[in-house]
Amino acid sequence: MKNIIAKVPISKIVNLDTLLVPIKNNEDDLQIIVTNYKKKIYAYLNSCPHDTRPLCKDAEYLWTKKKQLQCMHHQAVFNPQDGRCIKGPCEGDYLLRINTIQKNGELIFYKEGF
Ligand code: FES
C-alpha cells in the first residue's frame, strides 16, 4: 500500500529545475526536494544526512555550478541522480529518496513508513 505524502500538478515542475513541496500532515514542516534533472524527475526528503537539517530553504540556492545539489549548512555536495553525498561531512551517505508516480496530470509522492 502506497502512503501518499504529497501531490503537485506535473505542469509545475516541467519548466523548473527544482521545486520544494511540503509534505502534508507533518508537524516538522518536512519538504520534498523535486528536481527536474536532464528531463527526469528525482525526489528526496529535504533533510541532510549530516545532521538532518534542511539542505535548503530556497531552491534557488540548491544547485552548484556543476549542477550538483549542495547543503546550505556545511556545503555537502550530492549527486542529483541518486542522492549520494560525493563531497563533504557525510560523504558516501544518501539523501532519502521519495518515490513518485505520475497519474492524471499529477506527480504523486509516496513513501512507506511516513
Ligand atoms: S547539515 Fe548538511 S552538510 Fe551539514
Summarize this entry quickly:
Helices cover 4% and strands 36% of the residues. With 114 residues, it is mainly beta.
Order of helices and strands: EHEEEEEEEE
Output the CATH topology.
Answer: Rieske Iron-sulfur Protein
Bound compounds, each kind once, are:
FE2/S2 (inorganic) cluster
Please tally the helical runs, counting DSSP H or I stretches of 4 or more residues.
Answer: 1
Major sheet size, sense and barrel closure: 3 strands, antiparallel
- Based on DSSP secondary structure assignment, what is the total number of beta strands? 9
Q: Decide which structural class fits the backbone.
A: mainly beta
Radius of gyration: 13 Å
Shape: globular
- CATH homologous superfamily designation: Rieske [2Fe-2S] iron-sulphur domain
**What's the multimeric state?**
single chain
Low-confidence stretches: none
CATH architecture descriptor: 3-layer Sandwich
How is the largest sheet built, in terms of strand order? Answer: 1-9-8
C-alpha end-to-end distance: 12 Å
What would the average pLDDT be, to the nearest integer?
93
Please specify the SSE layout and strand pairing.
Layout (H helix, E strand, L loop, with lengths): L3 E6 L1 H4 L3 E5 L8 E7 L2 E6 L23 E2 L6 E2 L6 E3 L11 E5 L2 E5 L4
Antiparallel strand pairs: 1-9, 2-3, 3-4, 5-6, 6-7, 8-9
The chain binds FE2/S2 (inorganic) cluster.
FE2/S2 (inorganic) cluster (FES) binds next to loops.
Task: Tag the structure with descriptive keywords.
3-stranded antiparallel sheet; single chain; 4% helix; 114 residues; Rieske Iron-sulfur Protein; binds FE2/S2 (inorganic) cluster; 36% strand; mainly beta
